[in-house]
Amino acid sequence: MTDPTAPARRIAPFPHLRQDFAASLVVFLVALPLCVGVAVASGVPAELGLVTGIVGGIVTGLMRGSSLQVSGPAAGLTVLVFEAVREFGLPALGVIVLATGVLQIAMGALRLGRWFRAISVSVVEGMLAGIGLVLIAGQLYSVVGAKAPASGPEKIAGLPRALVDAAGNTATLASLALGAGTVAVLVGWKRLPAKVRTVPGPLAAVGLATLAALLLDLPVATVEVRGLLGSIQPPSLSAFGEAANVGLLGTIVAFTLIASAESLFSAAAVDRLHDGPRTAYDKELVAQGAGNAICGMLGALPMTAVIVRSAANVQAGARTKASRVLHGVWLLLFAALLPGVLAYIPLPALAGVLVHAGAKLVPVRALASLWREHRGEALILVVTAVSIVAVSMFEGVLVGLGLAVAKTAWEASHLRLEIVDKGAGPVQAYLSGNATFLRLPKILDSLESLPQDRPVELDLSGLHHLDHACRTALETWAERHSAAGTEPVKVTADKA
Length: 496
Fold this sequence. Notes:
- The chain has about 500 residues and is α/β, with parallel strands linked by helices.
- About 60% of the residues lie in helices and about 5% in strands.
- Strand 3 (about 415-420) and strand 4 form a beta hairpin.
């Protein structure tokens, strides 16, 4: 029973405000250059990247799901967005993103969020690796101030020529120096003292590059500024009319699958970084969908949960969702009050940030370890990545998923056939494991090689599963073997 004489305890409405406020500033400084860089690399106005970051912070950040992961425009979707804008035009981007959001909300409402955790990790890592390779190849052209070819193979094949051409042009060399310097700062930033590293690496790299370009008056391209309201382009009614386009529908499916998978895999990774509440996957999928639906209505970039920002949020000491909401507020204030600052940022610096981000998507060390332990999974990863580079994002992911399903089916049909022939009496054949149509050629080859003039005892009691195709094939073989004039094949009843 409560003591009426005891002083009443006052519970602060925001007990972790100090930690969340400090963390929000760190996340804002990490997100700012990435939002702008992803937008520019996607072929859309820089302000649209900020719009997506704002919506990801304020709208998705307020919703239930994962309390500490941060959403915004992601490097992982850059290639897909660029291809969509090039093929269907910028007005159609809003339709694609809006439809993606509606599908994500529907999947979350139908409780399908948890099923994304069943997607093969190798497929997801292969998808990110393929995106990373195409992103690196495309942004290297931006580093040297050249226009990138359309397809992945053309990007990679044309790189040597682009770098050779850059060597003979002063402006191109200045652009290359800024881009290379940005990558060098990002790579070396983690080796600097902790006090220096309180400034996020991407912000420091872009800030130093901008300062160098201004002080040295370098002839490099900078970000084009249109203003926040001038960049927002809600999709028109005519743009919605293109939704029946088969290619556009395929792009919507690709956006939905990739954005959802990346967000939920990110949530699982973030959960391992803290001891707070675990992610509610279906609610997180609804939150991502709501954010994408609003981004679509504003004609902005699609959003996903971003592991770089989320990890920075956790490491900066965030305790509640207030940190990610506040980071969205800071992005909004910057976009409203200081948009002119963007015009000073050199494009080669942003390209350098994305080259570094793309390199981190390629799991070189993990692939070497995976090859030693699980070569089948390593093969799926490599084939998925190569397919994305060679064909396209959507087809590459489908190839990876198909390989993963085929590998799982093959392993699930593990079968052992043991033949015991003592030289006299019946030949004994023991089948154990899972007899499916995938293993049918192996079974029949072995049984048909048995002597036709000897009786056979076929023991199926060790089988865990015997599908209809195998059962029918075994019965047909037994009839043919018995018809040769020997004793009928004796079959021991199976457990299936």
